[in-house]
Amino acid sequence: MICIYCFHPKTTITNSRGHKKEAATWRRHACPNCGKVFSSIERPVMADSYRITDEASGTSEPYSRTRLASSLLRSFGHLQGSQLYTTTDWLTESAEKALIASAYYGALSKDELGMLVYEILKNYDPVASVQYAAQNGLVSAISKRKRGRPSVR
Q1: In 9-93, at which residue ranges do the beta strands (DSSP E only) sit?
Q2: What residue spans define the domains of the chain?
């Protein structure tokens, strides 16, 4: 790995540990050039394992962490500042862990991914979960004669 301080092309790994509860490896690196030490976390690339399909249009694309994070970010209009970005990053990681732990592998529909993320959001922030469901088309139509909250498919 390249040194993050002096950009020396080769560092040595002085310590390495696998994570107990997720697919990740923590590593301690030392640079022979500047002598500084830093840590890294190695995770699998999700885009290689998952494809998101849109049943309506019949298209398929690789999973994108950036896309998931931006859709979560849009659902947190009621938060501000650094709390917003920390929350979004943490929830994106939680969604990825749930995706890895689920039975899904390979193709995953947009709605299935949306429901997985919605369930996580519902437990964390109910307002954000409703915003997320509305923005991703998970809210069913509301009858004019019925009162109450819209239901999620």
Answers
A1: 12-18, 25-30, 37-42, 50-54, 59-62
A2: 12-42, 46-135
